[in-house]
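FORM 12-B: Structure-to-Sequence Request
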């Protein structure tokens, strides 16, 4: 009976500038839900996926989230890539409708709401193990932080500053630009004249392409400079000429080069189901979407019902033995996930894993503040 179906709502950017990432999220949601249904469903019921396109526009995301909770009456809502999109979905689904919301993207942390669970990596996981390692590997002490002007870069940079100074280095420049900024002449001149050894980049599309081009043309890499950008993954990499990003370091919960058997099998299945399109990757929230749906499934099974307060209680400590990049578990009381982290480096247009960092706690929402 159709009305007996469990309803899962997903809002993701299937059109607009983030569509290559949003389509991957939609694909993962379809794949996971089809798998659950093929295995008999959940609580003996089939799951119906309600998929909405937020078109890389926050007002659209908010309207679609409102539709999912008010008209479609979904049991849970997932999605969003930009932090501003999370806030838009939160306004409609969480603050107005009181609905459980799972946010799948790597982000700046600090989202501590009793109805929100986050399944992507946060600064403690991406930066605490990586910055000291990078400084040790390269001997670098001077960092420059060119940034897009919104919350994620500001909080990432604060963490980078702490780690660099704690390890005997210094920040020689920190600048913020509109997302579509295109002329970085002055910034690149500063990077070259200050003897910057590491550029930690948090400029984002569309502004990141002209920045990387201008940095390359100035000869930053040629003179031995190191480039780091945590969000680079296999959907983003092909958007740039190989020479602009060669040698770049990233740190995420998964790369396609991760070689554990489950990750490889999952990637093969995804590629068979969705050939030639948006790729299954870490930085674009696709791995967080997988994790979010499977952790929610585990929580519903433990709760034995869809009663939201029971599902939340179970989700607080839910775990999965397998996932892209390895096992994952919610850290009780934190609403964020302990997961494996990897450092990768771009070489010949590919991201190769250069260090398996192991599992890291998110260190979010500690002290019981929700």
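FORM 12-B RESPONSE
SEQUENCE OUT:
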């Amino acid at each position: 009976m159709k009305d007996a179906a469990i309803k899962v709502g997903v809002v993701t950017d299937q059109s607009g500038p983030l569509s290559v990432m949003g389509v991957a999220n939609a694909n993962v949601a379809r794949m996971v839900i089809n798998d659950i249904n093929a295995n008999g469903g959940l609580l003996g019921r089939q799951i119906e996926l309600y998929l909405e396109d937020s078109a890389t526009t926050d007002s659209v995301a908010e309207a679609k989230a409102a539709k999912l909770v008010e008209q479609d009456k979904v049991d849970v809502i997932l999605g969003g890539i930009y932090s501003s999109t999370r806030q838009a979905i939160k306004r409609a689904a969480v603050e107005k409708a009181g609905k459980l919301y799972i946010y799948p993207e790597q982000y700046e942390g600090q989202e501590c709401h009793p109805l929100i669970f986050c399944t992507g990596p946060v600064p403690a996981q991406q930066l605490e193990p990586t910055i000291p390692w990078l400084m040790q590997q390269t001997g670098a002490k001077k960092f420059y932080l060119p940034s897009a002007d919104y919350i994620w870069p500001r909080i990432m940079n604060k963490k980078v500053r702490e780690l660099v100074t704690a390890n005997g280095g210094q920040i020689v420049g920190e600048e913020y630009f509109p997302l579509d900024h295109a002329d970085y002449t002055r910034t690149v001149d500063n990077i070259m004249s200050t003897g910057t050894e590491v550029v930690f980049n948090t400029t984002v599309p569309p502004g990141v392409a002209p920045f990387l081009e201008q940095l390359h043309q100035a000869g930053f890499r040629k003179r031995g400079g190191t480039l780091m950008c945590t969000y680079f993954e296999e959907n983003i990499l092909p958007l740039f000429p190989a020479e602009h990003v060669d040698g770049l370091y990233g740190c995420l919960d998964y790369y396609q080069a991760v070689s554990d058997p489950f990750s490889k099998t999952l990637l093969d299945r995804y590629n068979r189901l969705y050939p030639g399109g948006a790729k299954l990757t870490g930085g674009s929230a696709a791995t967080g979407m997988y994790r979010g749906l499977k952790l929610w499934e585990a929580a519903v099974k433990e709760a034995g019902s869809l009663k939201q307060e029971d599902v939340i209680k179970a989700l607080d400590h839910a775990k999965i033995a397998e996932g892209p990049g390895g096992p994952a578990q919610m850290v009780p009381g934190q609403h964020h996930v302990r997961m494996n982290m990897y450092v990768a480096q771009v070489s010949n247009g590919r991201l190769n894993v250069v260090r398996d960092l192991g599992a890291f706690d998110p260190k979010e929402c500690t002290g019981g503040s929700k």
